[in-house]
Amino acid sequence: MDREWMRQQLEAFDGVAVHYQETKAPGAYFGDQALHDQLHRAEPTIKQILRLLDPDLADKVNIDQMAGVAMARNEVHRGLGILADMDEWAARLAPDAPTLAADRFHHWVWDAARTFWESRHYRAAVHAAASSINAHTQNKLGRTDVADDKLIQEAFSDRAPEPGRPRLRVAGDPTSPTTQSRQRGTLQMGLGAFFAIRNPAAHDSGEWTEQEALEQLAALSLLARLIDSSSVST
Length: 234
Hints:
Blueprint (H helix, E strand, L loop, with lengths): L2 H20 L10 H21 L1 H4 L9 H25 L14 H12 L3 H20 L6 H8 L11 E3 L7 H27 L6 H20 L1 E3 L1
Antiparallel strand pairs: 1-2
Helix pairs in contact: 1-2, 1-4, 2-4, 5-6, 5-9, 6-7, 6-8, 6-9, 7-8, 8-9
């Protein structure tokens, strides 16, 4: 998030709101129309910013209702307070446990998931990430005739390559038991990811929790790294 831009937008809105309130005559419902129009134009952006900081704040912003501008200013002030203290919260209130930085996931995964994640569509983010892995794997092998679990099964099959059916081989000495184990494990992990992650993400109807989706993105990121580092055998 661009916190400085968010702060500037909130402060600018608050400044216009103060000026607007000063133009209202005693007992009048409306103030200067031009300033009211300016607040109207800014309101959607202000709501988006507040929704990212605290969803409850955005729901209370409606400058058309009675005392709407004054109420909006209250929520904007709360949003500014959150922005001011976010770094302090992160430093002092974080649990003493390791954390996962989603933007450090494999780029196949996070580049596809980011937009959905930022709008809190977590299941869609996971589905987009799994679809991205499928597309990149197809591109790596030059195949579009198979997809998802069937693509993984073909790619990491222990059979020799065939015309039109190249294989993926994990890095390492192919005669090493460890490499052979990793090859079989990547096949099983890929199948599991498409059966247990991609398919529910595509067909479930409800939203997923942030934690659940983050765990599944982490699994997909590991799979993406294994596929990306594998070599094509023709």
